[in-house]
Design goal:
Chains A, B: This is LacI family transcriptional regulator. Chains A, B: Keywords: DNA-binding, Transcription, Transcription regulation. Chains A, B: It comes from Flavobacterium hungaricum. The structure is a homodimer. The first copy, chain A, is α/β, with parallel strands linked by helices. Chain A has 3 domains: 44 residues, lambda repressor-like DNA-binding domains (434 Repressor (Amino-terminal Domain)); 133 residues, Rossmann fold; 138 residues, Rossmann fold (3-Layer(aba) Sandwich). Chain A is 43% helix and 15% strand. In chain A, the strands form 2 sheets. Chain A has a 6-stranded parallel sheet, with helices on both faces. In chain A, strands 7-6-8-9-10-12 form a 6-stranded mixed sheet, sandwiched between helices. In chain A, helix 2 packs across helix 3. The radius of gyration of chain A is 26 Å and the shape is elongated. Chain A starts with 6 loop residues before the first helix and ends in a 10-residue tail after the last strand. Chains A and B meet through helix 4, helix 5, strand 2, helix 6 and helix 12 of A and helix 4, helix 5, strand 2, helix 6 and helix 12 of B. Strand 2 of chain A pairs antiparallel with strand 2 of chain B. The structure holds a DNA duplex.
Chain lengths: 342, 342
DNA sequence: TACTTTCGTGTAATCGATTACATAATTTAA
DNA sequence: TTAAATTATGTAATCGATTACACGAAAGTA
């Protein structure tokens, strides 16, 4: 059933050598036109398909690129991957997916596996929990495999990145809450060893200071990105002597939890308490009480990452390119924080 | 920078041949224990890494599997892929992602590309729009590449599938609406050339008949899976002489659209009108008016697909295996359809 | 005509690993 | 002690494509 046809089979049939067949198929200029046409016709007739594995071995390029994300079943990461796939499809690259589940060990394994599989490039969102050990990343770079961080980035020489301006995202959102009249704004942060959470926090803080509001350490709560974590965080905030009247959450899920908890206590949103999230998860706009959130344009981020990869992949090795692309965040103001009239 | 170490380098250093090195590394029983240890030690010292591409060429197996989905940025498909990846990770397979965007042309291209890349198996959710041309699928089977359909399946000899019992899902949901006292239940369906939509419809119809309700053609509306489509569909239903008092939607998004449209008309849910969806998208449980929906256990579906693949991949070619796994749907009853007390 | 280019194709090495077969080394049996 | 059996290793082909180099034939030049 369906014997594999090789260039040797074509060569034999035409009484020429495989070298000539290869040249004809690759549009090598030093081949007679008549021969080329004959080979092409015969190849088509015999249903020849190039063996990519042989090509990959010979060339050292697999035409695969690897993508490493904490998990794929999150709207954000799935959208980024969609963008990557769409941008790379016309160039003939296949996208290999790896998940870390926020495990450094898994991240390192994935990096090594991808290098071993000789992918032509790696795009990833790092798993943050601080590890001093960059050896897996260095291993990638030593092998001259282009490495690109998206969203969650790290400072490593030779690595390009595509991120959004998280500082600005935090700033804009906080400023918006201030403009709505909020006086005591809390913040849900994530693991600040990750730049994204650090910068959202810094943007938040700066917006407070620039607008004459006091920054209170007790208003900053470190939460996981989950509904339950959001509930618990609000619970803690409301126990304070002077509880806040708004929260800017680095996570939409935590923001949702906050809203659910506030509603269960009959605290009116946005009248008594405003809530804003981050990531613009689909549900934020679907809710009846739609949730204000910062869009990270994941699709664009994926496409941009792919473009950066394409730029790097064919450059001569001599010049080390390191490109930092920063996308603009976009604040979507919705009911959860809009006190003033629509 | 980081020369690639091959078995020839190891052989040279130890004054033996590459064959011996290969055997030692592969735990071939006919190698002297001392030699094996020496090779292993040397390989480790030299930081040897097996070249997967060479192995793939020699063995004809790439250790990659392909997954084709309409789009990746849907919670359902992303979760299935997550399941596949997690199940296959311990077995050393890498997962290649392809999107069709519901285009048959793209689907066929992807199938050919994956076969050309010599993946060891393909798992996919078909793009339904009726095409009589099964040649791409047959091409896969001729090459002896295990092919597994999940969720959206097709009847093709030699192809295994993992689906849920959509008929039952439709039946259960409709029965539930009847039990809540609904007398005139409408249905939003999708492209019925896809079994999933056909079967949900049939389950719906059967539940009506089994419970003495009239089946009305005019209550069945074919919609896209989008919020706007749901709004429009409800709009049309309400124009009928005897408008329905409930809808079972094959899409959560259309169900959401229905709810939004009903609410904008001040029709009370679930008191005057009940709504149920399908897929158990995350937002259905997040809404204040949470939406009744059928869970398809996508994670389990992915894992199961992977397991079916693993069963098939090593079987001798002589026996043709064709496994049909049908998972049970699970109805999640929520506020949008729960008239009676909680 | 004789000599140099140019053109088209063949030869053979290469990418890195695996493995059937051959052979050398060692052990066992007689 | 010698033949037979066993064990460990080497030799070389193979997977399928690409490509530097060699070479014969055709074309151009003097």
């Amino acid at each position: 059933m369906s014997e594999k046809v090789t260039i040797y089979d074509i060569a034999e049939k035409l009484n020429i050598t495989a070298a000539t067949v290869s040249r004809a198929l690759n549009n090598n200029p030093k081949i007679k036109e008549a021969t080329r046409e004959l080979v092409l016709k015969t190849a088509a007739a015999m249903n020849y398909k190039q063996n990519k594995l042989a090509l990959a071995l010979k060339s050292g390029r697999s035409n695969n690129i690897g993508v490493i994300v904490p998990r794929i079943d999150s709207n954000f990461f799935a959208s980024v991957i969609r963008g990557i796939e769409e941008e790379l499809y016309p160039h003939g690259y296949q996208v290999i997916i790896c998940q870390t589940h926020e495990s450094i060990k898994r991240e390192n394994e994935n990096l090594h596996t991808l290098v071993d599989a000789q992918v032509d490039g790696i795009m990833m969102s790092v798993t943050g929990i601080s590890d001093e050990n960059d050896s897996a990343f260095r291993h990638v770079l030593e092998k001259n495999v282009p490495l690109i961080f998206f969203d969650r980035s790290k400072h490593i020489d030779g690595v390009s990145s595509v991120t959004i301006n998280d500082f600005k995202g935090g700033y804009l959102t906080t400023k918006h809450l201030i403009d709505e009249g909020c006086k005591a704004i809390a913040h849900f942060s994530g693991d600040q060893s990750l730049d994204i959470f650090k910068n959202r926090f810094l943007g938040y803080k700066q917006a407070l200071l620039d607008n004459g509001l006091e920054f209170k350490e007790e208003y900053v709560i470190y939460t996981k990105s989950s509904v339950d974590a959001g509930k618990e965080a609000v619970d803690n905030l409301l126990k304070l002597d002077t509880p806040p009247d708004a929260v800017f959450s680095s996570s939409d899920f935590a923001a949702l939890g906050a809203i659910q908890e506030l509603q269960s206590r009959n605290i009116s949103i946005p009248k008594e308490f405003c809530v804003a999230g981050f990531s613009n998860e689909p549900f934020t706009k679907f809710m009846e009480l739609s949730i204000t959130s910062v869009d990270q344009s994941p699709l664009e981020m994926g496409k941009m990452s792919a473009r950066v990869f394409l730029e790097q992949v064919d450059k001569t090795d001599t010049i080390k390119i390191e490109k930092k692309v920063v996308l603009a965040p976009e604040l979507h103001i919705r009911k959860s924080s809009k006190k003033t009239n629509f």
